[in-house]
Amino acid sequence: MSLLLRTYGLIRPALFRMDAEKAHEFTLHWLDKMHQKAAGLISQELLLPTKLMGLNVKNPVGLAAGLDKNGAHIDALGALGFGFVEVGTVTPLPQPGNPKPRLFRIPAKQCLINRFGFNNDGLEQFIHNVQQSQWRKNGGTLGLNIGKNAATPIENATDDYLKGLDGVYAHADYVTVNISSPNTQNLRALQGENELIQLLSALNARRTELQQLHGRYVPIAVKIAPDIDTAQTDSIATAVQQCHIDGIIATNTTLSRDYVANQPNAHEQGGLSGPAVHDLSLQVIARLRQQLGADYPIIGVGGINSGLQAVEKIQAGANAIQLYTGLIYQGPLLIRDCVDAIHNLMHR
Question: What pLDDT digit, counting tens, does each position of 288-319 carry?
Fold first, then answer.
């Protein structure tokens, strides 16, 4: 294990003195440079072979979308030991997202609030970046996450998702449909039963065409919010089965502030991530597993700060997990901690 991976705790205070978004960008560029010049210093190979949506992944611990919105840092992030990497969310057209500042730390609770608003360089640049990466060529599993432009009326959202699917299909091991960001107006309305069936039916039909065109089947997953009740969870479970969607990612960030009440920055608008989401996510995962049966693929996300929380996601019904905010607070050794904990759970 490299020295640099073990010394993240020494570097973190300096990063936390920087503006949160600047620290995010600095870290990604630094990882890129290290990967290009001295890959061994940041690399770790973690093997726990897992089947996920019909795909063979190196281990069941993935990177959640949002950390690398433009797919510009895939190789360096993959080298940290992830079994699969998901990048985006990408929209058909470039967009700046919401005004800065739009990323806020709540260190006492190891949480973040973001209201980025799908800031990205657009589909054309995204695909170019993905094509430049070596991760898939070297056997890594890559998920590409698609969304809609803020300027696109919600009634025309399907058009944007179809454009996204058309663009990324040839370059993805799986595609994630993000309908759960709280930072694009009305986006979560797409989780309503009728709206969801309309969207997912259109995507499945287009996927059939793309499968014939490209000669390969690409699984589609849908990413949902934690702020849903049992009835909404059940209607989502019905919709994904009816529309032949291959997996669910549960969950995105929460609008609840109960976990961070009275903390600095807790009043900021946006989605709250970190331990605040863990229990909410567990409830959604457990209900989905109950409704979808034993074999349906579920990826658990939200509030994983240690191997213990990773195991709790698996025990609730997830087949694999993804990390984001936990990485910011714990560093890359969290990936190994989660892989080891899941391995121990499986081999009891």
Answer: 999 999 999 999 999 999 999 999 999 999 99
Q: Coil, strand or helix: which one is 63?
A: strand
Give tens-digit pLDDT for 52-80. 999 999 999 999 999 999 999 999 999 99
Range of the domain at 133: 3-346
CATH at residue 153: 3.20.20.70
- What mean pLDDT is reported for the chain? 95
| Tokens at 319, concatenated | 């087949």
* Pairing relationship of beta strands 61-63 and 174-178 according to DSSP bridges: unpaired
Active site residues: 181
**Backbone φ, ψ for residue 86 (5° rounding):** -120, 130
Strands (E), 202-285: 220-224, 247-250, 271-273
Which two tokens mark 246? 């291959």
How many domains are there within the chain? Answer: 1
Residue 139 is given by DSSP the state T
Per DSSP bridges, beta strands 111-114 and 271-273 are antiparallel
